[in-house]
Specification:
This protein has a two-stranded antiparallel ribbon with strand order 1-2. A two-stranded antiparallel ribbon has the order 3-4. It is an alpha+beta fold. The longest helix has 16 residues. The chain is about 25% helix and about 20% strand. It comes from Bacillus songklensis. This is AbrB/MazE/SpoVT family DNA-binding domain-containing protein. InterPro entries: AbrB_C (IPR040678), B_subtilis_Trans_State_Reg (IPR052731), SpoVT-AbrB_dom (IPR007159), SpoVT-AbrB_sf (IPR037914). Keywords: DNA-binding.
Amino acid sequence: MKTTGIVRKVDELGRIVVPIELRRILDLNIKDPVEIFVERDKIILQKYKPYGACAVTGEIAVDNVTLAGGKLTLSQKGMHILLKELEEHVKSL
């Protein structure tokens, strides 16, 4: 686990502000759902990603495809976006 050097106090309602620097790094926007985990004496926050959601578009559809041994789920639109970016990347090599 990496330390950030950032310390925040819990307010009287039990809230903690996540600094803008961390929200930018994690692509965490206003109203985004956050999943909370507990591991021994640690609280872990993670941007919530529903099971079966496309890794590119976030779309949940019955025709989404799971690849890479279950590590990557893509919608039809997500596949086209990813394929286009991969083709551009390969051309630049």
